[in-house]
Write a structure and sequence with these properties.
This protein has helices at 44-51, 74-84, 100-104, 106-110, 116-125, 141-153, 171-188, 199-202, and strands at 2-13, 16-28, 33-37, 59-64, 67-68, 85-89, 159-163, 191-195, 207-212, 215-219. With 220 residues, the chain is of the alpha/beta class.
Length: 220
């Protein structure tokens, strides 16, 4: 499903170039739940964004279901991403002036499809059927992340990328969010790529990819 070879990515800090990804290779199978781990600054989020077509590598190739995403134009890549990928972020990234239903419908609007019934069904599935008309500031952190999960799944993407999705939640709510994410991913046969700093959370996946010195090591 995701095949990356020889990825290089660096940043400029003052006059210094810091290489974050150093000839990194990886393969993620369809339907797999893979967790990206490593120390702060190791490049976990950079790798996720590179795999998702959001940060072009200086060198290397990313194939998503056989498509070389960095051979596409910016417009084509955005269209491919909107059609095939869903995103969940630590800080929820909800629009404060939109209701839960409107926020969860954003991905379908971007993808150019009308899926109100599906969005309502997803919000009901994540336990927010009676909160459709509530604004984000009227929801708890756990409820806001549930809206974000529904938004990520609304357009039925093949891949879900999640960046520290439980990072702002207590252990109880974090565990429930992870349970929910796994359940919905399993139901749809979706590939799940999650960035986390928590080894206990990562241990629940099919594989852990630990980033050190710009490359990855694999733990079953």
């Amino acid at each position: 499903m995701i095949h990356a070879t020889n990825l290089h990515r660096s940043y400029s800090i003052g006059k210094k170039q810091v290489e974050v990804l150093h000839g990194l290779d990886l393969h993620i199978n369809r339907g797999e739940k893979v967790f990206l781990c490593g120390p702060s600054g190791a490049g976990k989020t950079t790798l996720m964004y590179t795999l998702a077509g959001l940060e072009q590598p200086l060198q290397g190739q990313v194939l998503i279901d056989g498509t070389d995403i960095y051979s596409l134009s910016l417009k084509e890549r955005a269209r491919f991403r909107n059609r095939n990928m869903g995103f969940i972020f630590q800080n929820y990234m909800l629009m404060p002036e939109l209701t839960a239903l409107e926020n969860a419908s954003l991905a379908t609007a971007v993808a150019g499809c009308e899926a109100t019934d599906r969005v309502v069904a997803l919000l009901q599935k994540v336990g927010l059927g009676n909160r459709l008309d509530h604004l984000p500031n009227e929801l708890s952190g756990g409820e806001q992340q549930r809206v974000a999960i529904a938004r990520a799944l609304a357009h039925d993407p093949a891949i879900i990328f999640a960046d520290e999705p439980t990072g702002n939640l207590d252990s109880r709510n974090g565990g429930q969010i992870l349970d929910l994410l796994f359940e919905l991913a399993d139901q749809g046969g979706k590939t799940l790529v999650v960035v986390t700093h928590d080894p206990a959370i990562a241990a629940r996946g099919d594989r852990v990819l630990t980033i050190r010195d710009g490359v990855v090591s694999t733990e079953a």
